[in-house]
Batch of 3 targets.
Target 1
Amino acid sequence: MDRLRHSLSAVGADAILVSHLPNIQYLCGFTGSAGLLFVEPHSSTLYTDSRYTFQARQEVSDAHVLIVKGGLMRAAGEKLRSSRGRRRVAYSASQVTVAQRQALDKAAGNKVRWVDDGGLVEKLRAVKDQDELERMAAAAALISEAFNKVVRLIRAGASELELAAEIEYQIKQEGGSGPSFETIVASGPRSAWAHARPTAKPLRKSELVVLDQGAILRGYCSDMTRTVFVGRAPARIRRLYQAVLRALEAGKEAIRPGVAAGAVDAAARRSLRRAGLARYFTHSTGHGLGLEIHEMPRLGKGDKTVLQEGMVVTVEPGVYLEGIGGIRIEDEVVVTANGAIDLTSAPRDFLEL
């Protein structure tokens, strides 16, 4: 909260209205589904409703809790209307609906000049402290172990849905609160769908299977993808897998403090280009993660965000060939002074099951 206050001057604001729930959780600890946090130079107020009276009392730190009726935006706007002089208040337009903005303006009157917050909270969240890194390492270890257990069940006849359900069961068995996102299990030609949802389709011999999974543990997400083959793989599939694995390692090797996020994407893409596969790589190389599965930075083409020590990112190159299938290998790593350190640990060797 103090770091946020110190950064307000960078966007020309004297206060900030935080509406995105993960940002509110990061700043004051509140995990309810209805909240609005108003941060001023010397105080902070969390607006929520009566459903969260007891929860807020237990969770919230460094903010006064105000239980309101008649809408959170209206209550925050009325506080602004009662303030002396005109306030310059930062907010994130992408995280406020048109209706919410209208409610704010109606309640606040002409007492507010709204300014873009420039992603101030997201920038703070991008660099993890030691407690966050410990939580994320534990979440990564959990999903790695879940995969190691589920891989024994991958065989012809098992359905995509069965395997996805087993992954999510293992997450909760090991103490996770649930998956970080809808678990992906895609087999055969469907494995070429980068974000395929699992179906009742049974796995068959001589098929690729992509498993993209993540766990939430103590509030923080993990993310890992592995690709396996049912049966004995032909030489072409083995070559494709090794090319993706080399691209994964090239991306990791490019990671260090001071490097632009886009340079990591470029390194992975160069590796696939040398193998003649760049045109089959159809998404960015990775993304940050933490309280949410997708956070700053984005490891995409030309992204100029500078990597910093303490950031946690994924590296996930892939190739997707229509009618044949897809191969994606993804690890979660932390940026350190010495480069990328793996948090996910499940084997990366090509598994023929």
Target 2
Amino acid sequence: MIKNHLRQLGTWLTDLVFPPCCNSCGRVDTLWCDSCLVELQRLPLQPIYSNLQHLDGCAATTEHTGILQAAIHAFKYLDQQQLAHPLADRLGIALQETQWTYDSIIPVPLHISRFKERRYNQSEVLCNALMGVTGQPVKSGVLMRHRHTPPQVGLNRQQRLINVADAFIATQPLTGERILLIDDVQTTGATLQACAQAMRNSGANRIYALTVTAAPLS
């Protein structure tokens, strides 16, 4: 109990000296302010479609820039999990435009070591919020990242493909299933392709992928 009190005191002192700031606008005392939340909710869709191997369709709601880039950073690295709901709302609207037909939603998994560091899988949190929008079930654990890979940041497309090759396996048969794969960001699509290949090898019939953002085309 004494350790908990000391930890809380340390957190209070840190916040006093270095108060948290909104990850978008810099407003003090919050990691994501109400004004930026409203702006995020009003941001229109500008869908980006990609043709990726092993996928029957792939889309993102817009480019990975501006307030959405800031929101994903806060959601993914700063434990701002409440941002999953406005992000899932965007995904839900995008899904209506695609008219894809699928049976279940599957998140891109984290390796267990990365999960222990972060304490949550942002893609799974996003899927659970999306389930509230679409009513379609989430199947967590169906796809597993059985090989730890270095972060994709800083790698080119070919390096990313090699990095995640055979990194994923399906933990159960998916014969005939139609699947919606969800992740926060698509950069080159290497991770989505590797996940889709693992599910295709397990018998999946159709596989679609949807992300909140996609890296700007160079």
Target 3
Amino acid sequence: MEYLREFFDITVLYYNPNISSEPEYVKRLEEEVRLIGIYNDQVRAYRERGEQPEAQVITDNTGLIEVIRGDYEPQTFYEAVRGYEDCPEAGERCFICYEMRIREAYRVAAERGCDYACTTLTISPLKNAAKINEIGMKLEPEYAPVRWLPSDFKKKEGFKRSTELSAIYGLYRQNYCGCVFSRPLDKEVNDEDSNA
């Protein structure tokens, strides 16, 4: 968001049906909302002083980031990956999950008249950015005129910056993607204490 808001008006869809427990889903959503609230407060403070925040030099709207809260629908994830439960991490099951989430981002983007859709999934060094972008490009014709914005946000120290921002703002960082299949096996994951 920090980078994209320099170029785009942003609407964030929080949609993660893969997350295996509702408390974990809510905790991650609340952190997303909190961070966006911080960003929006920064923009408001600049505006109150009559200044233009550096991160809004191109866009000309309010500069505020909107959050759309997706429903918690784990059954959607389980139905989509049925038969792929034993796939290795970062394999076909994950690709199905990526597509399900990207498809929903496209649907919402089209419904709202957005120009582009993209995902923050590529910030993770554990996610296959090439495959994510391949899926995004494959779905683009179904949702035209919305276009896919190819990304690999972990590059150019993007992942490093995400950890710096987490430290600055005291953000919760989990140590697994959220699905039951990715939970660490060496210990029981406590959704209240799964900071990485």
